[in-house]
Each structure stands twice: as structure tokens, then as C-alpha cells.
Amino acid sequence: MTSKSSAPGWVRLDRAGNTFTGYISADGVAWTFIGSDTVPMAATVYAGLGVTSASLTGASPATFSNVTFTAGTPV
Asked: For the sheet containing 10-16, what is the strand order?
């Protein structure tokens, strides 16, 4: 999945079974589909959050909010 977006922005990744679908948003309300892919995985996976600085010379603050991990039975 490749797409350009300016900071700040929102990213959403949905998993249904082995299918991952990605979305981006400028406001966290209206979502734009950017792609999906099927990746064979075990039923249990570990997830984390990462961030990168928009500055080449120093750190930039980042805030994560409205983060949800929902466990369920893969479809």
C-alpha cells in the first residue's frame, strides 16, 4: 500500500481472517481505501504502534488516541 498524505493524519488497518485492508483519513471521520492484501497468519498476532518524525533534525511529538484492538474469531 502506498499513498501520500500530509501530517497530521489518521491510518486505519482492518483485519478479517488473513485479509488486511488499509485506509487513510485527513480528519479521522471520512476514510479513503488505499489497498488490501492477504497474508497467511496464525490466529494470534501481536500488534504495536510506531511513529516517525517529519523533521530531519529532531524529534517531533506524537499522540495516539482512539486506539482500538478488538479480539474476535477470524472469518
From this structure: 10-16, 19-25, 32-38
